Amino acid sequence: MGHRAKLLAGIGAVTATIAAVAALALSSNAVPSATGTRACALGEAQLGGFVDIPGGGFVMGVDPVFPEEGPPRRVLVSPFRLQAHDVTNSQFAAFVTETGYVTEAELNSGSAQVHESDTPEVVQSWWSLDRDATWRTPDGVGSDLTGRDLHPVIHVTLNDARAYAAWAGGRIPTEVEWEYAASRGLFDPMDPESGVRAPDGTARANIWTGIFPVINSRRDGFAGTAPVGCYEPGLTGAYDMIGNVWEWTESPFAPSVPRFTIKGGSYLCSEDYCQRYRVAARESFEVDFSTAHIGFRIVQRMEHTDAPG
Questions:
Q1: How many structural domains does the chain have?
Q2: pLDDT in tens, 98-114
Q3: The domain that contains 134 carries what CATH number?
Q4: CB pairs under 8 A, 24+ apart, for 169-172?
Q5: How confident is the model at residue 218 (pLDDT cuts 50, 70, 90)?
Q6: How far apart are the C-alpha atoms of 82 and 173, rounded to whole Å?
Q7: Residue span of the structural domain in which 35 resides
């Protein structure tokens, strides 16, 4: 069954224990809104920049937690250029303005939205199909992009991402390229969670902090998406490879699964539920469906120039 069918049927059943916690939390108005609490943004000069990722080898799928992440294997990667941040709403708006492109969520039946509620039923299915959710109206009817120019664009399918990438002179990275770049950016290669927090506990990524899906403490500064570049870049100079939004890749998830791979985790990944805020983590999704927590970045070919003689 695909994600669209699952959402229409009501997905995300959780245990009775979590339901009890949810009821208590919701009765005390503990569920936060999806607004940010930390002021940050990239400067205009940094917007749309790329970092060079040199070719080399690495161990893919290292320290696997879930079966689909392993086994670890040695992979060689050619050099490429990686956009230093997720594609933003402002960048996607420029693409739409120039080309007149209409996303699949706008053409079809909307997009998957995180379900907010003031009743304990929120824990029965925290996702719903919102027919009014699009990249232009990220929270559904009545919402817009005011104050979100530098947030990652969401509610875009892989097909939408491909169209943008072609217009921008790039392409969507493969899973190998994405994981290689993310691995090179880790602050501590021996600690797969070093992209999430510093040794002193300082947040390095936007994830869910608290009890998922009912209490978000916002210890990292945000409850929903954050503007790109709010956390220190990894060692490659790329921002937000971990958390904030999942990122599309151009790699099928598995030979028998007609879906493509997303990487990096999102603001909905938590220590007690998802744990997919690691470079080896992966999930699958249909190419023509979108959600409130999937975005993308693009890569370009590394141009080689001859040294002056």
A1: 1
A2: 999 999 999 998 999 98
A3: 3.90.1580.10
A4: 169/300, 170/83, 170/298, 170/299, 170/300, 171/250, 171/298, 171/299, 171/300, 172/248, 172/249, 172/250, 172/296, 172/298, 172/299
A5: confident
A6: 8
A7: 3-301
